[in-house]
Design a protein that fits this description.
Rossmann fold, 5-stranded parallel β-sheet, binds 1,3-dihydroxyacetonephosphate, binds iron/sulfur cluster
């Protein structure tokens, strides 16, 4: 540890990208194996370039639990991802999120008081602990993962939601799925559950706005949450591409609406999208419905394929975009000086319960 004061953030904004890049590189070399940078596929290019390991949420969760030699995990992604890294990493490891304002608007659509209220409302007509599995998409706060851990439930990601729902139905007859209604509906439908047996739970309304008959009929209760980026993609965009480029293949993220997912050729997590397009033959044509940074990266990487962004307007994840070179440089320079800034530390009891829910997932997939 040094006695030098922490490096301030503001002056870094005045520096050019070249200077920031060179400072980050120097800090990275100086920290060596002590520090690992994890990068989600939606990170802007100049930040993604510095990631030692990249992936979708599931892959990054696993990596966070495996890189036990790194004292510092700098997470270039959003808040819930850094929380998962903290929960799954060893106690001696420190997780850092370069900008604390990098959240996920979908994760913010479900909170513990409303989920607990839903559990109480459902408990009026059902024995919840015997009948309902609470399942949270990984895009959620740690306290909701802890809620699932404490009530026999689990976490899922976009790459394993169907498997996790299958697991859930092997335990109990119903699932309360939050916060993304689209991932829940798309995955439930692929398992053969009719739409009428997936009811939308509207937090804030008594009994989620459902009648007791609707609750009893539902196999999945879908929380009324969504991703504002992925709900921009529309069936009309797919129709337009099919008309313009005969033979085009459409691949979308399962956070897209039901109609979009139904009309696409493939659905998958960010890693699965990347893998499928990479494995496709040269000359193949792809319209991709997920965040712009990933699509642009694939386009640059594979100039021999036709790769198009499915939406005619720009849709990028504004919170992912908050992690920029200045913030990455700031946290790295501070580590070199012996200062930890923007640490993500989930309280121990909450982390223990959340870990149970995450480990149930990791045991299934
Ligand atoms: P993936 O797990 O597919 O990377 O998705 C994370 C996410 O936030 C998508 O919007
Ligand atoms: Fe959250 Fe949507 Fe951004 Fe993914 S793309 S992090 S779901 S707001």
């Amino acid at each position: 540890m040094t006695t030098s004061p922490p490096v301030p953030l503001e002056p870094l904004y005045a520096l050019s990208d070249e200077v920031l890049q060179s400072r980050i590189q120097t800090a990275k070399e100086s920290l060596g194996d002590q520090c690992v940078i994890l990068g989600h596929h939606y990170q802007r290019e100049e930040v993604y370039h510095f990631a030692d390991l990249t992936g979708d949420s599931l892959k990054l969760s696993r990596l966070a639990s495996q890189r036990t030699e790194a004292r510092y995990i700098v997470f270039c992604g959003v808040h819930f991802m850094a929380e998962v890294a903290d929960i799954l990493s060893a106690p001696a490891q420190t997780v850092i999120l370069p900008d604390l304002a990098a959240g996920c608007s979908m994760a913010d659509m479900a909170d513990l008081p409303n989920v607990e209220q839903a559990w109480r409302d459902l408990g009026k007509g059902l024995d919840c602990e015997q009948t309902i599995i609470p399942m949270t998409y990984v895009n959620s706060t740690a306290d909701l993962k802890a809620f699932c851990g404490d009530h026999g439930g689990a976490v899922c990601t976009s790459s394993n939601a169907e498997k996790m729902l299958t697991w859930a139905f092997s335990q109990r007859e119903k699932v309360l799925f939050f916060p993304d209604q689209h991932l829940g509906r798309n995955s439930g439908h692929r398992l053969g559950i009719p739409l009428e047996e997936m009811a939308l739970w509207q937090p804030g309304l008594p009994n989620g706005g459902l009648t007791s008959a609707e609750i009893h009929r539902a196999r999945i209760l879908l929380w009324d949450g969504f991703c504002s980026v992925h709900t921009m993609f529309q069936p009309a965009h797919i129709a337009l591409f099919r008309q313009r480029i005969p033979g085009v293949q459409v691949i979308v993220h399962p956070e897209c609406s039901f109609d979009v997912c139904q009309q696409a050729d493939y659905r998958g997590s960010t890693e699965q999208i990347q893998d499928r397009v990479r494995a496709a033959p040269s000359g193949s044509q792809w319209a991709i419905g997920t965040e712009l940074n990933l699509v642009n990266r694939l386009k640059k990487e594979m100039p021999d394929k036709g790769i198009f962004f499915l939406c005619p307007t720009v849709c990028l994840c504004a919170t992912m975009f908050r992690i920029d070179l200045a913030h990455l440089c700031w946290v790295m320079d501070n580590l070199v000086q012996g200062h930890v800034v923007n640490r993500i530390a989930v309280p121990a009891r909450e982390a223990a319960s959340a870990r149970r829910a995450l480990e149930r997932m990791l045991a299934v997939v």
